[in-house]
Amino acid sequence: MSFIKVLILKFSSLRTQTMASSDKTINTDVPEKDVFAIHFLQSLSNLTTQNPFNSPDTTNYRARKIKKAAYVSMAKAAGGSSRLWSRALLGRAAKENNKIVRFARRKRKVTWKISSKRRSDQRAPEATDRLRNLVPGGGTMETSKLMEETAHYIKCLSMQVKVMQCLVDGLSPK
Amino acid sequence: MDLTGGFGARSGGAGPCREAIGLESLHLGDEFRQLVTTLPPDNAGGSFTALLELPSTQAVELLHFTDSSSSQAAVTAIGGDIAPPLHSFGGTLTFPSNPVLLERAARFSVIATEQQNGNVSGETPTSSVPSNSSANLDRVKTEPAETDSAVEKQVPSPNQTNRSGKRKDFEKKVKSSTKKNKSSEENEKLPYVHVRARRGQATDSHSLAERARREKINARMKLLQELVPGCDKIQGTALVLDEIINHVQSLQRQVEMLSMRLAAVNPRIDFNLDTILASENGSLMDGSFSGTAMQLAWPHQAIETEQSFHHHRQLQPPPPQQWPFEGLNQPVWGREEDQTHGNDHSNLMAVSENVMVDSANLHPNQVKMEL
User: Which SUPFAM superfamilies does UniProt cross-reference here (chain B) (predicted)?
Assistant: First the structure.
């Protein structure tokens, strides 16, 4: 009846498909747009339920919140803990949330640890390290795994950009 | 020296080695089948147990100094006794009826026999007709460790048949000392069998593993290169990686910009979503306030709030429209309310269509231009 139920049904069917095709060597399934959209919309509604619009939040803070919600829902839509980067994103979000709850809104600076042993690729060491800093959870991956995760991460990011663009276009005042 | 020769022959071409292995196993299987079929295993007991109690070298010598018929019988007895487990082990072997293969196997067996004969007794390899069985015996006794070294010795053996006995004694020492080493090395190499060393490439296990790793990285790089637009024409790993990094950074920046824009238009989303949820479970709209209270009691944790959200929607849906109805009864919202209550379903479908259909057509360049 309502589109959320339809989307959830579609989500379950897509989930079974991805489970069936998960035994390939390089598995970069495109994550589902509707799944990300539904996660994102729900977390947005939660966000505004917790912080009503007339609360003294600045737009900057709200934008940060929305960005975090977008990343978390992207990680969830990408399959939760099946990917290394999504697992790292979710873990980081949980950690930051704990920090924020405990200490009053201090943004914890996350520094990815880069072990010098992993830096064994002689051709482009600094480039891979920069890529490691970009992909969440990339500090502890080996290089081939980092490439694979980066491919999946890029796909998810482009999907996220598309969906958010559609949301902005569809919901902004004409 | 023999070891290096064997390795050289191995790294020279993996094809002949493989063929030799296949021939060797085929040859062994064929002989075992012959032995099993020719001799019934019940008269095997006495001589074999008598042989087993001796040390192996003595047994070989004993076999060697008897006449050919008795040694043949004893060895066939041994073969008949030992063969069934090995035969069952090699159950996947197919015994060829191809005469060419059989002839080549016979030739290889003769070469191996000469080699083994020289190794064991130090004699000249010409008198090797009865000691065919002794070589077979030796190979049967040390079967799992022997196959590799025997195969490696078969390839350079035509050059070695007319060498002196001294050299062969030395070879024997080397062989006996490196037998265990070789078997362990082969166990290590087993996962990397699919990596072929080309001419002039190193063949130790570290190099093989490193090569496999590099090939894996190159495959992933190719995949990434296909993903990033305009990246497939660039040559060089560092440049490709730079392009990939730029792409990821631009995507992350786009997400940031879009979240800022969404924050600017956020209230309408809230209202739409709330009406969505209200229309979804409209019959349960008069639920308790405890749901909202619990939702408020959660910390700012998107994960847990979302989980609790699912939870509540399954058990007892919270009335989410209480917040906008409570504090936001402004004329703007009233207009929105009328509109959305009038055709909420069509609006929802429009939103979902917008999400599902239009997002397929958007490209990052368009997004950039719009921004």
Answer: HLH, helix-loop-helix DNA-binding domain
Chain A residues near residue B367 by CB distance under 8 angstroms: 161-162, 165
Domain's final residue, options B192, B222, B238 = B192
pLDDT of residue B79: 42
B351: tokens are 């939103």
Q: Give chain B's mean pLDDT.
A: 51
In a domain, B198, yes or no: no
Please report the pLDDT score of residue B355 as a whole number. 42
Q: Do the domain assignments include residue B42?
A: yes
Domain count, chain B: 3
Q: In this predicted model, what pLDDT tens digit does every residue of B288-301 receive, in sequence order?
A: 333 333 333 333 33
Find chain A residues with C-beta within 8 A of B349's C-beta: 3
Q: What are A23-82's pLDDT values in tens digits?
A: 334 555 666 777 788 888 888 877 776 665 555 567 777 788 888 888 888 888 887 667
Q: Please report the sign of the dihedral spanned by the C-alpha atoms of residue B329, residue B332, residue B336, residue B338.
A: positive
On whether residue B199 sits in a domain, the answer given is no
Number of helical (H) and strand (E) elements in chain B, helices listed first:
21, 0
Tokens representing residue B12 in the block:
């020279």
CA dihedral A93, A94, A97, A102 (to 10 degrees): -140
Tokens at B53, concatenated:
């109690």
Does residue B30 have a pLDDT over 50?
yes
Residue B353 lies in a domain: yes
Which residue in chain B has the smallest CA separation from A95?
B301
Are A169 and B354 an interchain contact pair (Cβ–Cβ within 8 Å)? Answer: yes
Tell me A119's DSSP state.
-
Residue B224, both tokens: 């990434």
B17 and B118 fall within a common domain: yes
CA B88, B91, B97, B102: dihedral to nearest 10 degrees? -70
> Which chain B residues touch A124 with a CB distance below 8 Å?
237-238, 241
Distance of CA B339 to the CA centre of its chain: 59
- Nearest-Å Rg of the Cα atoms of chain B is 39
Domain of residue B20, residue span: 2-192
Q: Is A166 close to B358, i.e. CB distance below 8 A?
A: yes
